[in-house]
Amino acid sequence: MNKIGKILLICGAAMFALSLLASAQVRKAHFAGHFYPSDKAVLVKMVDKYLSSVKKKNIKGKVNAIIVPHAGYSFSGRTAGAAYGSIDNEYETIALIGPCHRSYVKGAAIYAKGSFQTPLGKINIDEKLAKKILKADSIFKKNTLAHSNEHSLEVQLPFLQRKLKKGFKILPILINDGTAEELARMGEIIAKALKGKKALIVISSDLSHFPNHKIAKLMDESLIFSLSAMNSAYFLKTTEVLLNKRVANVATVACGRAAIAAGMAAASALGADEFLKLKYEDSFDSNPSQSSAESVVGYLAGAFIETGKKSEPFKLKLSKAEKTELLKFARYSILSELKREDPKFGLRQNILFNQPAAIFVTLKNNGRLRGCIGGTVSRMTLYDAVFAFSKAAAFADHRFMPVKLKELEKINIEISILSPLGKINSDKEIIADKHGVMLINKNKSGLFLPQVWKQISKKEDFLNEICVQKAGLKKKCWLDKNTKIYTFTVDSFKE
After folding, report:
1. CA nearest 124: which of 161, 162, 85, 89?
2. Is the CATH code 3.40.50.150 the one for domain 26-306?
3. In the list 115, 287, 310, 396, which could disulfide-bond 122, CB 3.0-4.6 Å?
4. pTM
C-alpha cells in the first residue's frame, strides 16, 4: 500500500472511531416497544390522552419537584399523567432522579454528556450542570454504564417531550442507596446547582411491590402521609418501620426511596414547604384485566410545592378519640403480658398509627410514679411503640417491682409523643414547663420529660437531677463543655 493509501486508511479508521464515540454519547430508547410504544404516532396519542384525561388540581404555589411512577404505561401512565399535568410547560433544565434496578450504584451516577433518545427525538444533557455537580462532591460520579439499561428515567422522557416546549435539557441521576445524611447532602448539592435556573426535579419511583390490593393501599397511604413532614430523614424512617412489619409478599415499600429522599431534600432546599398528593392507584386499579388483586404495585403522583407559608414543625396530630384508643391499647398491652398472651399486630387502618414515633409511657399509682420507659428515636410504628413501651414501663423499669394483675386497675397511664431532638448551645435556651431535656456525655445519657417540671421547677435542680438520677453522672454535668444538651417537646395525654 502506498503512503497516500496508508494515510487514507488511518483517517478512515479515525473517523470511524469518532463516529462510534459520538454514537456512544446518544443513549438509545431501550424500552420503547416494551414499557411504552415504539411507534411515534401511537406514543403521541397515548401520552396526550394521559395528560388530558386527568383533572388538573388547583395548585397554589410553585411546583419545585414531582414524584412520578415508572412502570409500563398501560399500568402507571394515568398516574404519571396526573403528575405531569400539574407542571408548567417551559423549563430550562429537568433534573431526573431515580433508582437503578439492574445494578448497584454507589453514591449518585450521572449521565454527564450527550443525549437521550426516544421515538419522539433526542433530549440533550445539561453538560455544564453535570460538570458543576460532579465537581461539587465526589459522592456524584460519572457513570454512563449504569444508565445504559435502566428504565426509571427513560419512561419519563416522552411525557416531558409532549408536555414541555422544545429546548429543555435533562440531568439524569441514578441513586440506589445512602444514609439519611448522604441523601440530604446530595439533594442540597443538586438544589444549589439548580438555583437561578428555570428548573424542575422529577423523582421516579413506584411504591409498594407485591402485597395484595387491600394491604397495598394501606401501606402506600401510610408512606404518602410521611411525605407531608417535608423531612427526608422522617420519610426514610417510615420506609424502615413499614418494611419491618414484614407484611406478606412485600419486597419494598418504595423502589426509589433513596431518590425520593434526595429529591425531597433538593426540593426543600429550593423552597418547597408542602407536599400534595395528586393521584394514587395500584396496578390492579389501573389495569385489572392484566393484573391480579393478590399482587400489586403502588403508583403515586405528587408535587412538592413552594407556598411561602410559615409552617410549624411537623408532628402527629391526633384527635381525642385516637388518643383514647391508644390509651386503651396501652392498658391492653400490659394485660396481655400478665395473661401470657403474645398478640401480633399488622398495619393499622388508621395511617397515623403506622407512622414512626418516639414515645414514653408513664405509669402512676395514686399520683406516684410506678414506671416510665420510652425512647427518643423512632424505631417502630406509633402503635407498636405503645405496645412495647407500655409493657416495658410495667415490667422492665429497674426502679420498681413488676406490676401485678390486682394492681393494674389502680394504675393511670400517660403517653408522651416526642418531637425530634434539637441540639442547643446553652441551658439558657431551655424553657421551663415546655422543654424536655436530654443530656449526653460520652457513653452516658439521661433525660426528663417536660412533665417533670411540675416536681422540679428550678432549672438548675432539674438539670442536676438528670445528671445524677438519670445519666449516672456528676452533679452539674450539664456545665461540662463535653456534655451535649438537647431539647424536645411532647404531646402528652393520659387516662
Report:
1. 161
2. no
3. 115
4. 0.90
